[in-house]
Amino acid sequence: SPLLRADHVSRIYDDGQVQALSDVSLTIHQGEYVAIVGPSGSGKSTLLNVLGGLDEPTSGHVLFKEQTIRDAAALDRLRSTEIGYVFQSFYLLPTLTAVENVQLPMFETGLNARQREDKANELLETVGMTHRADHLPTKLSVGERQRVAIARSLANDPIAILADEPTGNLDSKTGVEILALFDQLHEQGKTLVVITHDHSVAARAQRTIEVKDGQLIRDTLLTEVSE
Ligand code: ADP
Ligand code: ADP
């Protein structure tokens, strides 16, 4: 079923000097694993940010489960609980330990301190980071930082994970380990939308969306998606 839909979305920056997206329409279905590819500056991050409610279209609409995101409350809910985000540079808070970083999104929900910590420890176990729970990010390898960031993206049981170049700062061996983790999340039913420059990342997805000059130029389904 449709999960995220862009309906004639454009995004213009700098008073019209940059058209990052031009009239883009697409639907991402629940359970899909989608790779977004294309040259640098083609609009991939803008597309992901708009789909995930981190940026606002200049025109057009974004729909979540066929509902237009209309008010601030719906946008908040989308960002804090429906969607998890993973970035190239992790964005962990340097003064908090791994387990504390994973708990950050949970302050939006009704969990108490004990529940937050238990949940964060479970998520660290999922990403193979139990033994590093009390380490600060600076004491972790880059691959371990990305594992913590992935655990944090799962904090509120999102239906979808949106990731912007998640292996961009990792060596290829570490990147492959992170990709295996994404495969595992996909098998568990998460919808994944991943921006990548890396063909080996794109090859793992079921669908590849190619962006160029702010437009979708190709949308390739590699495997049948079961609904
Ligand atoms: P990609 O992710 O494919 O590298 P982006 O979506 O980051 O592409 O950028 C698309 C275009 O929009 C680029 O020309 C970029 O410089 C511009 N752009 C992106 N974000 C902003 C912003 N916040 N302000 C101004 N221009 C931006
Ligand atoms: P990516 O690795 O995704 O291509 P970029 O370096 O293009 O990353 O962009 C990183 C961030 O900076 C994005 O969130 C984007 O919106 C913002 N950005 C990109 N280009 C510009 C720009 N010309 N002015 C302001 N912000 C920009």
TrEMBL record:
<dbReference type="GO" id="GO:0005524">
    <property type="term" value="F:ATP binding"/>
</dbReference>
<dbReference type="InterPro" id="IPR017911">
    <property type="entry name" value="MacB-like_ATP-bd"/>
</dbReference>
<dbReference type="InterPro" id="IPR017871">
    <property type="entry name" value="ABC_transporter-like_CS"/>
</dbReference>
<dbReference type="GO" id="GO:0016887">
    <property type="term" value="F:ATP hydrolysis activity"/>
</dbReference>
<dbReference type="InterPro" id="IPR003593">
    <property type="entry name" value="AAA+_ATPase"/>
</dbReference>
<dbReference type="Pfam" id="PF00005">
    <property type="entry name" value="ABC_tran"/>
</dbReference>
<dbReference type="InterPro" id="IPR027417">
    <property type="entry name" value="P-loop_NTPase"/>
</dbReference>
<keyword id="KW-0547">Nucleotide-binding</keyword>
<keyword id="KW-0449">Lipoprotein</keyword>
<dbReference type="GO" id="GO:0022857">
    <property type="term" value="F:transmembrane transporter activity"/>
</dbReference>
<dbReference type="InterPro" id="IPR003439">
    <property type="entry name" value="ABC_transporter-like_ATP-bd"/>
</dbReference>
<protein>
    <submittedName>
        <fullName>Lipoprotein-releasing system ATP-binding protein LolD</fullName>
        <ecNumber>3.6.3.-</ecNumber>
    </submittedName>
</protein>
<feature type="domain" description="ABC transporter">
    <location>
        <begin position="4"/>
        <end position="227"/>
    </location>
</feature>
<keyword id="KW-0067">ATP-binding</keyword>
<dbReference type="GO" id="GO:0005886">
    <property type="term" value="C:plasma membrane"/>
</dbReference>
<comment type="similarity">
    <text>Belongs to the ABC transporter superfamily. Macrolide exporter (TC 3.A.1.122) family.</text>
</comment>
<keyword id="KW-0378">Hydrolase</keyword>
<keyword id="KW-0813">Transport</keyword>
<dbReference type="InterPro" id="IPR015854">
    <property type="entry name" value="ABC_transpr_LolD-like"/>
</dbReference>
<dbReference type="GO" id="GO:0098796">
    <property type="term" value="C:membrane protein complex"/>
</dbReference>
